[in-house]
Write a structure and sequence with these properties.
Layout (H helix, E strand, L loop, with lengths): L1 H20 L3 H27 L1 E5 L3 E3 L5 E6 L9 E2 L2 E5 L5 E4 L1 H6 L3 E3 L6 E6 L4 E3 L6 E3 L1 E3 L1 E7 L12 H4 L3 E3 L9 E5 L11 H7 L3 E8 L4 E5 L5 H20 L4 E6 L6 E6 L5 H9 L20 E5 L7
Parallel strand pairs: 1-11, 2-12, 16-17, 16-19
Antiparallel strand pairs: 1-3, 3-7, 4-9, 5-6, 5-8, 8-12, 9-10, 13-15, 14-15, 17-18
Helix pairs in contact: 1-2
Length: 321
């Protein structure tokens, strides 16, 4: 816009000098035309300037390392699309990194901006400070529209190395369901006095000449615990959350409810979340990735947990650059 204003002032100065040294009628006409031109163009530009809307679009979430683009688009305008200047800002909630893309660079992107998804986290994208100009580029108004979007970059599940002993969950241990009732899993055994006759397997009993009972089974609900330490670097955070995510998904696939615990670095209090379904992992990861990386690590590696039947601690490992 400064360039356009300098060009206009140069033209206006030339028209003024021409009027001073030339006494023809059209020198005065040219000077009046140069004085009125910006206001006339502004008047015919206002509908398009006020109607212009800017829209930022990006996926809600992706995995670390995936390709993700911030899409830039404008809605329908009245008349010819006026020139506009964008100022895009992408900020990471973990380390506070802020990348600003200036207008000249945006034009070369053809409406797309590739986002850095190397590490997991939350990227907040905004276009505050964007302006729309009149057709001469002398006046500007702020662009209206949806200017803020968030991208949740989730970790990729990676198994721990070495892998903990998971044979207890792989065998799918079950026990008789108290009170019987419906169940997809059953065990066959001989009828005992006091058993409900509704659970008798009559066809099998007729073949064996003795009463055989179908005893409803249910999974053994033991207290399973996963703990982890919040690291101080983005690379270590990727490693911790990747292993934590793999273990949690593995336990859910084997019908094992479990609890995840960690220390909140801001207040030093123990946090705990019960996980019963994979859908509950995304809100947990969003909570963990919404806060900046801590300056120090609070470890739960040596903590004893009475009453817990199975426990695994995901520690901060040194990650090679």
């Amino acid at each position: 816009m400064i360039k356009n204003r300098l060009l206009y002032l140069g033209g206006l100065l030339a028209a003024l000098i021409f009027h001073i040294f030339y006494f023809g009628w059209y020198s005065w006409y040219l000077l009046v035309l140069m004085l009125c031109l910006p206001w006339f163009v502004l008047l015919i530009s206002l509908p398009a300037m006020l109607w212009l809307r800017l829209k930022l679009t990006l996926p809600e979430q992706c995995r670390a390392g995936d390709t993700a683009f911030l899409q830039l688009s404008t809605g329908k305008t009245k008349g010819i699309l006026p020139p506009y200047h964008l100022r895009l800002q992408v900020k990471s909630t973990l380390d506070g990194r802020c990348v600003t893309v200036r207008p000249r660079k945006v034009k070369k992107l053809q409406g797309k901006l590739a986002l850095d998804t190397t590490h997991c986290g939350i990227l907040r994208c905004s276009a505050k400070g964007s302006r729309v100009c009149d057709y001469l580029g002398l006046f500007a108004l702020p662009v209206r529209g949806s200017f803020e979007r968030e991208l949740l970059v989730l970790p990729r599940p990676v198994p721990p190395d070495p892998l903990p002993n998971l044979t207890a969950f792989a065998t799918g241990r079950r026990r008789p369901k108290p009170g019987g009732g419906f169940s997809e899993e059953h065990e066959l055994r001989e009828y005992r006095e006091g058993d409900n006759l509704r659970d008798v397997h009559w066809k099998l009993s007729a073949k064996t000449d003795q009463l055989i009972l179908r005893e409803a089974q249910e999974p053994i609900r033991e207290q399973v615990l996963l703990t982890f330490d919040l690291p101080v670097t983005a690379a270590q955070l990727d490693s911790v959350l990747s292993r934590l995510l793999w273990l949690s998904c593995w336990l859910i696939d084997h019908e094992t409810h479990h609890e995840i615990r960690w220390i909140d670095p801001q207040n030093g209090e123990l946090q705990r979340v019960l996980i019963q379904d994979k859908d509950e992992l995304v809100p947990l990861l969003r909570t963990l990735l919404s806060s900046p990386l801590p300056e120090t690590t609070h470890s739960l590696a040596e903590t004893r947990w009475p009453g817990v039947s199975w426990h695994y601690h995901v520690s901060c490992e040194e990650v090679q650059p």
